[in-house]
């Protein structure tokens, strides 16, 4: 669930990641760096990584390349970062799912992003949006949709088993008392394609990848998963406003490196990321429907551990298991 600190620190406009106050000394990159995205190109994770990579490259005076390593709900890419040399050159584009869902869903993997990485900074947050497909679903609001879902079988899509998209749907269905057949896709782009093709009745995906299709009329939005409305779609009610009190599942992104990365490299990367999160970067994220957030760098790992712990409990309660 969304940490109250997040709400207080949502950036109204200008702002930065509140980088470490001291100038990092003792480490400078001398070759290209990589940001590993654990989902295919085109989704919100990829979008966020590419927006941040450009100014980060300028601050570090080295190329910062985005590399997509999808699979196993994000664990393939996460494992790659954790097992890469801990030298600061391989960076993880972290997500709520990787830190707060996967350690439960893929417990046998031994991969735990909270335990095995050090955060460089939080980048932003998005809401998942419950969208239905016009022509397949008659309902125009959440209450009538729940009633319709109780009358007939439905199929829904997510961006992958164990993803925040899947968890958002699972918690929704449990609270609403409905059932539907789950079809997990390998990321946002395949899910959006399936929704546009009307292969599913409904799906949960982020404001970053859903908004254009909502505005075109291809998707009909019923509610967002956060306790505040998404800035991209202020007309769409929250789940709580629409009739599900207590529903709160926001999604955040961060950058992280392997836990054993030397402190000078972590400090330099944090400093560079703090500067990279300029007003221009903030505006680019907002244009991509990502609401930036900031947490003081000294509180970053603790904040993420607390948030991940809440998501892990939700995941246990939802009893999501790997396919």
UniProtKB/TrEMBL annotation:
Keyword terms, alphabetized: Signal
Signal peptide: 1-24
Pfam family, one: TctC
The UniProt record lists the keyword Signal: yes
Entry keyword annotation includes Protease: no
Superkingdom, natural source: Bacteria
Positions of transmembrane segments: none
The family this protein is said to belong to: Belongs to the UPF0065 (bug) family.
Name of the protein in question: Tripartite tricarboxylate transporter substrate binding protein
């Amino acid at each position: 669930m969304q940490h109250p600190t997040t709400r207080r620190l949502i950036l109204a406009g200008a702002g930065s990641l509140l980088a470490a106050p001291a100038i990092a000394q003792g480490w400078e990159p001398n070759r290209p760096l990589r940001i590993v995205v654990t989902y295919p190109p085109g989704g919100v994770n990829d979008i966020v990584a590419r927006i941040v990579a450009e100014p980060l490259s300028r601050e570090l005076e080295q190329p910062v390349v985005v590399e997509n390593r999808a699979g196993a709900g994000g664990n393939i890419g996460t494992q790659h970062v954790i097992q890469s040399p801990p030298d600061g050159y391989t960076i993880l584009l972290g997500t709520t799912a990787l830190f707060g869902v996967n350690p439960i869903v893929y417990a046998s993997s031994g991969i735990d992003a909270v335990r095995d990485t050090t955060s460089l900074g939080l980048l932003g947050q998005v809401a998942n949006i419950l969208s239905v497909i016009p022509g397949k679903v008659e309902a125009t609001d959440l209450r009538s949709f729940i009633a319709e879902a109780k009358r007939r079988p439905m199929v829904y899509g997510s961006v992958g088993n164990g993803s925040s998209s899947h968890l958002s749907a699972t918690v929704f269905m449990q609270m609403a008392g409905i059932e539907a057949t789950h079809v997990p896709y390998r990321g946002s782009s395949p899910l959006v394609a399936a929704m546009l093709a009307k292969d599913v009745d409904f799906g949960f995906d982020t404001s970053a990848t859903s908004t254009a299709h909502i505005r075109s009329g291809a998707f009909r939005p019923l509610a967002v998963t956060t306790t505040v409305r998404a800035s991209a779609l202020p007309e769409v009610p929250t789940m709580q406003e629409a009739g599900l009190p207590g529903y709160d599942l926001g999604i955040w992104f961060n950058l992280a490196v392997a836990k054993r990365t030397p402190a000078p490299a972590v400090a330099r990367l944090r400093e560079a990321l703090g500067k990279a999160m300029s007003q221009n970067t903030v505006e680019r994220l907002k244009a991509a429907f990502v609401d930036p957030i900031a947490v003081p760098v000294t509180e970053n790992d603790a904040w993420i551990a607390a948030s991940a712990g809440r998501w892990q409990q939700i995941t246990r309660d939802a009893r999501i298991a790997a396919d």
